[in-house]
Amino acid sequence: MSQTVEPPILPEDCPDREVNCEVALEAAFAALVAASEAQGWTPTETARTLQKIATIHAQRVEAVVAAPPEITSKRKKR
Fold first, then answer.
1. Are the CB atoms for 2 and 32 separated by under 8 Å?
2. What is the reported pTM?
3. Is 46 within 8 Å of 33 (Cβ atoms)?
4. Tens of pLDDT, residues 29-45
5. What integer pLDDT is reported at residue 12 of this predicted model?
6. How far apart are CA 49 and CA 70, in angstroms?
7. Residues 1 and 36 in one domain
8. Which of 9, 13, 37, 72 is the most exposed place for a label (fewest CB within 10 A)?
9. Residues 61 and 27 in one domain
10. Is it the case that residue 69 has pLDDT exceeding 80?
């Protein structure tokens, strides 16, 4: 299942960078879905679980971005 994720080809301030990220992740994501279903998980179970994991990850990222600088700098030092 090891699909590589290509690095960004666009600068961070480019409006199309999110689309670039989607394209870079598509093959690895499809491989993860296929591997999950090959192990017996249903498409619905796989989709719901991946959505849950992605939501939790997004919430953590947003929490770090919203945290005051002194808190985020302490996290980086660990």
1. no
2. 0.74
3. yes
4. 999 999 999 999 999 99
5. 96
6. 33
7. yes
8. 13
9. no
10. no
* Residue 57: half-sphere exposure toward Cβ, Cα within 13 Å: 6
Q: How far apart are CA 61 and CA 54, in angstroms?
A: 10
Predicted confidence band of residue 67 (pLDDT cuts 50, 70, 90):
confident
In the three-class reduction of DSSP (H, G, I as helix; E, B as strand; rest coil), residue 54 is classed as helix
Given the structure tokens 């700098």, which residue do they identify?
Answer: 73
- Whether 77 shows a pLDDT value over 60: the answer reads no
Tokens of 23: 């394209």
The owner of tokens 């990222």 is 61
Q: Which strand (E) or helix (H) includes residue 69?
A: helix 69-77
Using CB atoms within 10 A of its CB, is residue 54 exposed (0-12), middle (13-18) or buried (19+)?
exposed
On whether the CB atoms of residues 55 and 63 are closer than 8 A, the answer is no
59 and 26 within one domain: no
